Amino acid sequence: MRQLSAAPPAALPASLRKLSRWLLLGEWRAHPVRAITAIAAIAIGVSLGFAIHLINAAAFNEFSSAIKSLSGQADVQVTGAEATFDEQVYPRLAERPGVAVASPVLDVQASLPGQRSALQIIGLDPFRAGYVTPDLLGTPDPEHLADTLADDAIFLSPAAQAWLKPQGGVLALQSGTQAVTLRVAGPLQRVRAGQRLGVMDIGALQWRLNRVGQLSRVDLKLRGGVDREAFKAQLARDLEREHPGRFHVGSPNDEDQNSRNNNMSRAYRVNLSVLALVALFTGAFLVFSTQALSVMRRRSQFALLRVLGMERGRLLRQILLEGRALGVAGSLLGIAAGYGLAAAALRLFGGDLGAGYFAGVQPQVQFTPVAALVYFALGAGVAMLGCVAPAMEAARATPAVALKSGSEETAMARLALAWPGLACLAVAAAMSQMPPLWELPIFGYLSIALMLVGAIALMPRLASTVFRLLHARWSAAAADRPDSSPVLALALARLANASGQAGIALGGVLSSFSLMVAMAIMVSSFRVSLDDWLLQILPADLYASTASGGATAGLNPREQEQVRALPGVAKVDFLRARGVSLAPERPPVLLMARNIEPANADKLLAMTGPTLPVPEGRRPVWVSEPMADLYGVAAGSILKLPLQGRQHEFFVAGVWRDYARASGSVQMRLADYRAITGDMDINSTAIWLAKGGDGDDNMKKVKAALKALPFGAGLELSALSELRAMSLTIFDRSFAVTYLLEAIAIIIGLFGVAATFSAQTLARSKEFGMLRHIGVTRRQILAILALEGGALTGLGIATGAVLGWIISLVLVFVINPQSFHWTMQMHFPWPLLASVASALLAAAALTALLAGRQALSGAPIRAVREDW
Questions:
Q1: Number of domains composing the chain
Q2: Residues 221 and 292 in one domain
Q3: Is 185 exposed, middle or buried, given 0-12, 13-18 or 19+ CB atoms closer than 10 A?
Q4: What is the pLDDT of residues 496-520, one digit of tens each?
Q5: What is the extent of the structural domain holding 295?
Q6: Domain-located, residue 17
Q7: Rounded CA gap, 611 and 623, in Å?
Q8: N or C: at which end does the chain have fewer Cβ atoms within 10 angstroms?
Q9: Residues 6+ apart with CB under 8 A from 727
Q10: Is the same domain home to 300 and 229?
Q11: Percent with pLDDT over 70 in the chain
């Protein structure tokens, strides 16, 4: 110490740096598995979060760019509240002062025979589109330049050609029940990669797909010097005055367009990112347990350094440096792994990760330095946060006390304070009742985080209370039984009097198991609720549709009567579905018309409340839960819907549960829809079979009769069981990432339990040496360790199950409704929970045994020599 103090000022920092490296590397060399586990936990959390961010950012940006590319160089766009509007408005827009070019557009989601997805076809006037959307013009064969205007020609993007593989250059579409055959006249060379698109002459598209006189939008390119914002505002006022609620005026890059694209998948993206950070959150507790156990084991070393002259602040920085080193190493590995994971996922699965939000795009991963820095800071910050408490305890410790063996438990005394944990739980309960921010459950997520922190902070107090009670009862019972087990007595005595160390072990078990329980309950509840919902909204025996995707297929009245008259059919219900836009900043709402009796609406719809009686002279509608939340519509209110170029008022008779459409849906009576629109076609048919005879045989006969109809070849037939199986398969694919994150949380929990118990066991070698001195055998010590590991893990599992159930309540009844605007019923996946709990118990007991064997490998005298 004299030499260190007498060293020149310039040499002191170098000596301290050398000491710092020696302490850090020495600890890692002594316990490499524990350090690797903590680094891996941080790396997994950072990599998952960063990968999901890169995937979502790439897919969303490509999707938005693909949509904007369809608008080209348009300054202003006029769209309708309905999918199409009368083209009579086009001449007035084209002749409006300030307009240089007006390009009419018909955008159709065309049905394809045998395909469950639709092909987007855009009809253009090539002479005008060349000035506004030149990238959408097809490239005809030089010898057939007239194909640009041909009534049977279509130009396909490379992605559409690769998807459809038209045989002999011929593509078949479906209009009603009839096939429409078109020639593939050439490619679309300047559309974005992965974009499935077809382009036709607008007149040919109107004629071929029965859309004569209809447009989807008009793209306007303004003259030089015209104020675009002033032009838009004046045009919007004029159109609203002449056609109330019928048109939207915007720009390809305005806030409404960006908001509409963002709202489509924002909740999904945010929830995935939060689930990915679950692993990082668990990693924080692994760092905490790693550093806390390391500090306890090295208390005498740190005390000696303090006696030799190391300042308290320097010791604090040294321990924080160890935690930061774990975080930096884990974050660097996580950033690299996250980029590779994102690239692989985009190549193998596309940008929607199974959810279907970004279909038809082919994104490429782009490294974003800002996001990388954010996730790097998250990983390093979480690791630093995990070692703050152990570092402060080591710095505050009195050297004289810390030099004594057996002072480890006093180091954890501050962890037994109850008020910080109770305060966190109280704030969490208050936050769980708060409304969403920016339509996201921000307070719900904070509530869950505080629940975890509060519960873990209470673990030492809970462990002390539970094990002291058990020890007291066992001691009372053992007083009358001389042959009672000393192994159990020693195990309970240790647990009752070392609550601080027990709390550290319980923290890792509690965090991992409670989050796994909560996610498992949430996903299982959603899946079971979806299955029950399908049984209620799909009451028929058989369903027939002209095409699963697209909006051009359907049955006309004559064909509907042919279906109704089939032998073996007891009842038929028809459905007409179309989209309507109620707000330019949101995706369209699905309007469904079917035969609904207002007094018995709950027989067809999964109502969330009672169906209200319909006032005299009012037309009823039933809105979905997302519709009610997004548009502020409640049962008993009046809803205006744009139909046939006018706004019509409807009485909201109730709210129903719809898990298929997060953007909202409305159900109305088919008779009301037909009276307003004059549209007599339908999209789908529900068929109830006649009673009697063999059910499977009747089903086969009705299917054969449907296929024998003149239009039967274009019908897709599905039994209820097939629709349920397909829907649940889609659900599982959509939640595949959630399942993966849940599995990773379980794996991290298992490794965390193993690392924590291993570290604790190795840190107690002196205790085991003393037990060996007083006659306790190796077998008995191993039995004590197994009992301690099992008891601690059992308490952690029991507490984690309760905490996980409480967190699942927040997920099911707060976060899910605030994110996706629908409710569900609770369901508990007992087999999964029991299997994971058993794995945790086995991991804890096995780890304790293996670590105990290592700790007992030295001689008893050598283990306790520091106390002599």
A1: 3
A2: no
A3: buried
A4: 776 666 666 677 678 778 888 888 8
A5: 33-69+264-411
A6: no
A7: 11
A8: C
A9: 530, 534
A10: no
A11: 81
